[in-house]
Fold this protein.
Amino acid sequence: MFIACGRKQADAADKLGCARSTLQNKLKQAERRGVLAPPEIQEAAEAGGISDTRTLQHFWKIVKGKDGNGYSLFVKNPHGGERSFTDIIRESIEEAKSADLPPYEPRAEASAGENLLVLDLADVHFGKLSVRTETGHEYSRDIARHRVIEGTKALLKSARPMGIKRILFVLGNDILHTDDSKGQTTSGTPQDTEGSIFQMWKDAKLCLIDAIKICHDVADVDLVHCMSNHDWKMGWTLSQSVGSHFHQWPTINASEYNLSEAHRKYYRFGSNLFGLTHGDGAKEEKLYALMVQEARAHVGECRNLYWLLHHVHHKSRKKRGVDVFETEKDHVGMTTISTGTNYPEGAAINIEYVRSPSPPDGWHDRNGYVNRQGVEAFVFHPQDGQKARFTEWF
């Protein structure tokens, strides 16, 4: 009302009893939603009997003088038609942050120690169907929840005596088995599923919130999201929702960068620099160069460089220097561990693929892609690098 009458934004903010920045943000949101359209678009819409410019995608504007001469313009409404998926979700998350959120629950005792715990529950695949008579394994949403919660508890129990100062909790990485209501991945590959996408999403959200609270009982938590190929869109929305749940918790950090749709994320702890990605994108041999390019300010200051990858559901650990030395690899029925590397901690970049708690489904079993299921966590000293890692088997 005040803007339409020509009042300045500062005067309007005073009248509304809010800060000018708050008013500006609301105006931008309204413009993005099509509530406030540019004057020429609003004028054309009203002339055509259209009151809601959000439904107006484009139009012709014809101007003629008394002599019949003039011009016509094809105008596209930058705020009309269908909004992007990410815009809709971001608006919903912002609205959710202003709603009633659970109160902050301080832990009973302060965290003791100096180390970082990376808790990486990779490739959980809520909604995956595995039938014992076909694959020798059984998997459902209930089993997925059990493995996340009990795995988190077990890993914390093992790591806590080492002195944990902070926890990096990794989200995403095919937390959901599908990306739509048709039981398909993001690229359209059909999957054997247990439950609808709505059930998968809701069960996974409640499970992750509970797991993060369990971690918070030990130390402050940083959340980071990895985009993934089974649930590119829905997995991202899930992480956004989980992050917003803890919006008012000062000891749980869910920054815009950490939860963004960036393909690769970087995280620093002391002299340790971590790169995190799902593992279905950039080739392994490119990761060091990408880290140097994308996190240049930190590479020179960090002695220990790590990449945590996922996607393949089995363990593979390598040191990449002048050559490549594979120190550990899961095979069907056995794990090989090699010794004698010339690369001590900090002398080469470490690349580690994280195990998955989800068993093979029918397709994977049929093709011989059989993994031993487990969840993993890693302990890092601020200067000395990785001190320990733990696996909870299922």
Summary: The two ends are 62 Å apart (CA to CA). The chain has two domains: 9-97, 115-393. Residues 115-393 form a domain with the Purple Acid Phosphatase; chain A, domain 2 fold (CATH 3.60.21). The longest strand covers residues 164-172.
